């Protein structure tokens, strides 16, 4: 790591490798020409590898929230009865967006720091045998709580023919969440988290079941699946894509493929363990419950009488490292550290060392 | 111009200056921190200069079509009676998007190559005194037809208290279309046309009247004006922005400001004249009617028995210049040349010389 370069330890955007940044400089090309068609094909194949899917993947020029908009507006109608899970800010946004469609929503919510368990979903499905869609955030970026029982939850939904929508924005590519094996119909992620690409792109994989369901839906806008499918045939996106970011993405995804997904997952896991061991050593409590602890977003309670913003500012000013405060009600109560993308032992060591100095200097 | 570099003469994306491309390489920063707040402020001020407005400008990470989605979903309800003008592909998209909202639409359409006149609008407004919104594409990118009577049309709408939505995606920053002076309530453009920035950003200026109207609308998604306004107070965007593109934008807009808007408009106009003089000399008919000829998108009929794709391919392969075919039904009948952004006499000369050789070699 170049000592003069800022270390980005946010829960997104993350550090981006030099050659990925460099790739954005390639001259702008015609997004309706052969060069683009090749780029599109390459990216689709690489994304399918990372998503672990054979499904179509929509390439959206938007943030992850755009991906959520795509998922909600293309696959949910007023007639649906949707089980919507919420354990924090992003679960809440997903729930509210579904509500805005006018669908009936059954909300499963948990306290901040807690997560959704398979038993919660089982109970709700039993009471609502007419539920048609289940929507859940796999890794809640605002609290660092992860739905580790996702496999069981997907099985429960699939056994009842329920369409599954999973927001894996802050986890996909860092944690093993195999789309096809788990039976995720609509799987959302963004460029600026575990994929270690700059922000501005969202990706949504869509199963054939979901495509079938979309046939009854009239959308016609920026996030219209039918337009994305139509242009996919031509190896194009329906609307002008954010070209420089696609160049960057290709390089970033190739790095993941070269390392191998299993190695990438292992590296993320080891780095998360290092962070949690450090927290333990420093007597910093982890915010999420033990069974909910995320690998990609490390959320720690600040020491008593220390504000999160103080730590965040000192980390930036004195150590040139960006970490994040809490979200909403947790704003001054927790710090959040991204453990994503090109994370490695050296980066973790630099971060924990700086954090140790920072906390000792404040307390 | 570097001879080895591809010349992008598409009606978007356009050529992007080296330092604008270079700017994307700046390290990713925290989009919730002070550095971003400064960048946001700078960009807002520069955009207001280019839009010629005092209004709020929404900074969207999306293509221009996302800007249209923002305009339609935030300011039109089922209860509205909308005059929607269409003279080509983008007018049609605007019309269809409005239809999908469920609003009553009065469509003014013209043949391809023709444009909307003030008298057309006057007639429709007289017959529909209860119309509430007028939506129009100022410069139809698919045909190269421009609404030169826009001033009169805006006056007609404003005199009846009609909310005005104008899509200036392929013209703003290249042609004088002063938002406030014309009374445009909702004004849409994109990064990759006259602003000479890479694709991936859309900008929409919103008048206070439009903000007032939005109060009755529940949106809650990626294009929710209320969220953009709320985060504007903090000098932030509600969702993770496409950071590299914002760095590029700042440089691109600064170039426009340094040159001065009037000089930029004059440069575009002179270059367009050069293209039309060349067409005349070569006996290539311009596709749009004389009173509709665009400054920023030069659309010429191909010589009899010559396909557009032949010209386009030869231009790319033999001259390293990208121009575009027609759109939809015009696909093989016209060529379209972008006269936008960092266009200058040298670039026009290189392009027309190559085009002359190409056409003579085919005929």
Major beta sheet, strand line-up of chain A: 2-10-9-8-5-3-4
- What structural category characterises the helix and strand content of chain A? alpha/beta
Question: What is the alpha-carbon Rg of chain A in Å?
Answer: 20 Å
CATH superfamily of the largest domain in chain A: Type I PLP-dependent aspartate aminotransferase-like (Major domain)
Fraction of residues in helix of chain A? 40-55%
Detailed description of the structure:
2 copies of one chain form a homodimer. Chain A has 13 helices and 14 strands. Chain A is of the alpha/beta class and 363 residues long. Chain A folds into 2 domains: 7-14 and 261-362, Aspartate Aminotransferase, domain 1, CATH 3.90.1150.10; 19-257, 3-Layer(aba) Sandwich (Aspartate Aminotransferase, domain 2). The relative contact order of chain A is 0.18. At the A-B interface, helix 3, helix 4 and helix 10 of A face helix 3, helix 4 and helix 10 of B.
Characteristic terms for this protein:
seven-stranded mixed sheet, Aspartate Aminotransferase, domain 1, alpha/beta, homodimer, 13 helices, 363 residues, Aspartate Aminotransferase, domain 2, three-stranded antiparallel sheet
Task: State the gist of this model.
Chain A is an alpha/beta fold.
Write the layout of secondary structure elements.
The structure is a homodimer of 363-residue chains.
Chain A: E1 7-8, H1 18-23, H2 34-51, E2 56-60, H3 64-75, E3 81-86, H4 89-101, E4 104-109, H5 118-127, E5 133-137, E6 139-140, E7 145-146, H6 150-159, E8 163-167, H7 179-182, E9 186-190, E10 202-206, H8 208-214, H9 225-232, H10 243-259, H11 261-281, E11 297-301, H12 308-319, E12 321-322, E13 324-325, E14 334-338, H13 345-362
Parallel strand pairs in A: 1-12, 3-4, 3-5, 5-8, 8-9
Antiparallel strand pairs in A: 2-10, 6-7, 9-10, 11-14, 13-14
Helix pairs in contact in A: 2-10, 3-4, 5-6, 11-13, 12-13
